[in-house]
Amino acid sequence: MAKGILFVLSGPSGVGKGTVCSALREKLPDLVYSVSATTRNPRLGEENGVNYFFKTREQFTAMMEQDQLLEYAEYVGNYYGTPRDFVEQTLANGNDIFLEIEVQGALQVKEKFPEGVFIFLLPPSLDELNNRIRGRGTESQATIDHRMSVAVDEIGLMQHYDYAVVNDHIDCACERIESIMTAEHCKVRI
Amino acid sequence: MAKGILFVLSGPSGVGKGTVCSALREKLPDLVYSVSATTRNPRLGEENGVNYFFKTREQFTAMMEQDQLLEYAEYVGNYYGTPRDFVEQTLANGNDIFLEIEVQGALQVKEKFPEGVFIFLLPPSLDELNNRIRGRGTESQATIDHRMSVAVDEIGLMQHYDYAVVNDHIDCACERIESIMTAEHCKVRI
Fewer CB within a 10 Å sphere, N or C end of chain B? Predict the structure, then answer.
């Protein structure tokens, strides 16, 4: 049985990773999505192993020490990370797995799992990215400027990725990502 | 303007390269197809620059000597080859170009043009390839056996290609090839 492929979708904040990922989930309901581990408390309706793998701080720290995470970060006092086991088990079963993640996290994953396929989602233009960041309508000018400057830095990291997909329209971006998935399965691997 | 990409479709004789290529031409009428040069005489209705570039033996030999051919071969007393100029002009204009060719010819092209994308068309099984070769119904058992043995040797050359596409159904094979073309345009090239 052929092993599955890990596809990692990343890109600057505001580019629409989450929206594209939700659209893909609808189009490809059988695709397995990576489930993150976290130390934060479950919210109402969240299920362990579905929304997150909920861990105590001790459990999470043990996973870090035993190299059981492909990447992790601390955010507002809680840890979040990608469990290696879930990814490797899915691939060993012959299924692909899809991971949507921030740019820095993706680069951590690439270090530990270079055989993954890394896709960078690009805005059609920097003006359009500015519109999208601004469009949330909840942030001050200083915050918007800061987020734009971070986004521009992140776009500079695109060179570490295998593919760049412009998110001009969600459907077009999804089709390009599906094409990349099909093409990667046709690749001759010696 | 981004340069186009040279896509080379090859595979063992009997696998259905010509059929897949015709189906692609219908689906992608704007795609440019490589036009071969030949020393054979034009047949009724054939146009210079459309079906072939018709050349005298002296002109063809001069192209060989001046490295103006990406590949060439002699077949039943006539030369056939792929003019480099037509490929390079098309790419420089920002258009892709598609070349359907025998396995040995494709490997010659790869030597001269390694930046091309090389796609190997595979039969669903060797039994099915045997059926297809036999299906032409015009050849002796010895000829069929010989063609099968050549085909099996050619399949061994798949390792020099970038992609392998199974020709189980023409439409599926075409879709995979289109996905490869889309994905290649999304590749990050540093």
Answer: C
Cβ atoms of A161 and A10 closer than 8 Å: yes
pTM above 0.80, yes or no: yes
Asked if A182 and B186 come within 8 Å (Cβ–Cβ), the reply is no
Tell me whether residue A112 is in a domain: yes
Going from the C-alpha of B20 to that of each of A182, B17, B168, B175, the distances in angstroms are 18, 5, 11, 10
CATH code at B76? 3.40.50.300
The verdict on residue B21 lying in a domain is yes
Q: Domain count of chain A? A: 1
Q: Is A184 near chain B, with CB under 8 Å?
A: yes
Contact A56, A41 (CB under 8 A): no
Which domain does B59 fall in, by range?
6-186
Please state the ipTM of this predicted complex. Answer: 0.89
Q: Give a yes or no: residue B96 inside a domain.
A: yes
- B residues 29-58 lying closer than 8 A (beta carbon) to A: none
Inter-chain Cβ pairs, chain A and chain B, closer than 8 A: 62
